[in-house]
């Protein structure tokens, strides 16, 4: 595909470029809940941290620290106090990195297969880890054994928590919903409203439902309450003509509760599920966007631009491949919800 040519524009949205990006594709991004420290995990086995300085509309990035895993790292999360980072991946373990104190990273969780996603649950003081070994485990990081192991119907692909709601997306289009006030029982098991493989899930900020994104350029908006089922819908995105691209990332804005999608077409878009509108479509980058994240107040959206393996190994040349992390400053018009179209008397 010519649009993935090396000479094409990786930064058509004129975003700020993060200094010293990873040496291989970026698998996850997450901001500290307390400050503008950005974590990236990568297929080069590294977990890196940058400090992002924001002066008005000018951003600067300073590499601060990094740790290594033995194999590619797939996921990351911060502790709610902003002191500690968790990272997991193909070495089947989670490392806890006391970043702000400068301490050594230590292994706090283990699975029998790669760990695909994880979430820190401050209300329970536990770490949840989901693996391709078809289990979800809860960990008290002071103990070597999991507090609880939950069997999943298939390999874990994505986890999202807004306590007491936790949504786990697995292979075979399973979506398992947990009420964390009773975490040892499935609250609901739903077959994805999308026809193809789940890539990402995001729990609603009000805990009333979740978003699911799939490889077929589509997002499902699902409410948990049976009385709200009429509000469920799916919509197409990350498509161009007959080309259909994966939705790789779903992130709610922490203030306005609108959300961002990012996809293998190299675009990220902002949406309002309540008015069913796209608020802003950004220009397509020349490589896929595998992951994105908002900072704690929603004033920065970070996204990675790099190869995501969606077109197989034969389309990847490690010697020429470049990996970027960009920072976008969302305008209020891009992320603030709009009134429903129906409010003016027309649908």
Automatic annotation (TrEMBL):
Residues of the region (Disordered) are 1-20
Database matches in InterPro entries: WD40/YVTN_repeat-like_dom_sf (IPR015943), WD40_PAC1 (IPR020472), WD40_repeat_dom_sf (IPR036322), WD40_rpt (IPR001680)
- Answer whether the UniProt record assigns the keyword Repeat to this protein: yes
Q: Which controlled-vocabulary keywords does the entry list?
A: Repeat, WD repeat
Start-end of each WD repeat: 24-60, 66-107, 108-149, 240-281
Biased composition of type Polar residues is found at: 1-18
Q: Does the keyword Cell cycle apply?
A: no
Kindly give the Gene3D superfamilies that the UniProt entry links to this protein.
YVTN repeat-like/Quinoprotein amine dehydrogenase
Q: Please identify the protein, giving its name as recorded.
A: Putative transcription factor WD40-like family
User: What organism is this sequence from?
Assistant: Lupinus albus (White lupine)
């Amino acid at each position: 595909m010519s649009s993935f040519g090396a000479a094409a524009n990786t930064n058509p949205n004129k975003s700020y470029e993060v200094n010293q990006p990873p040496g291989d594709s970026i698998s996850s991004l997450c901001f500290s809940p307390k400050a503008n420290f950005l974590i990236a995990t990568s297929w080069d086995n590294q977990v890196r941290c940058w400090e992002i300085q924001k002066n008005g509309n000018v951003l600067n990035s300073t590499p601060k620290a990094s740790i290594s895993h033995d194999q590619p790292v797939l996921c990351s999360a911060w502790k709610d106090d902003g002191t500690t980072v968790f990272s997991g991946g193909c070495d089947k373990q989670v490392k806890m990195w006391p970043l702000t104190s400068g301490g050594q990273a230590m292994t706090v969780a283990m699975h029998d297969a790669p760990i695909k996603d994880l979430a820190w649950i401050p209300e329970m003081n536990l770490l949840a880890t989901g693996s391709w070994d078809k289990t979800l485990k809860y960990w008290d990081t002071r103990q070597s054994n999991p507090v609880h192991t939950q069997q999943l119907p298939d390999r874990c692909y994505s986890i999202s928590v807004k306590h007491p709601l936790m949504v786990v997306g697995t292979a075979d289009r399973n979506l398992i919903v947990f009420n964390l006030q009773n975490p040892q029982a499935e609250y609901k098991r739903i077959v994805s409203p999308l026809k193809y493989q789940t890539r990402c899930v995001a729990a609603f900020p009000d805990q009333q439902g979740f978003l699911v994104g799939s490889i077929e350029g589509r997002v499902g908006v699902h409410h948990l309450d049976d009385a709200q089922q009429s509000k469920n819908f799916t919509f197409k995105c990350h498509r161009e003509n007959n080309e259909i691209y994966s939705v790789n990332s779903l992130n709610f804005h922490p203030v306005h509760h609108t959300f961002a999608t990012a996809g293998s077409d190299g675009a990220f878009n902002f949406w309002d599920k309540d008015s069913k509108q796209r608020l802003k479509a950004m220009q397509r980058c020349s490589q896929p966007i595998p992951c994105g994240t908002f900072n704690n107040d929603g004033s920065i959206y970070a996204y990675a631009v790099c190869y995501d393996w969606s077109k197989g190994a034969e389309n990847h040349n490690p010697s020429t491949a470049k990996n970027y992390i960009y920072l976008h400053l969302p305008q209020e018009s891009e992320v603030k919800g709009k009134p429903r179209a129906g409010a003016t008397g027309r649908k």
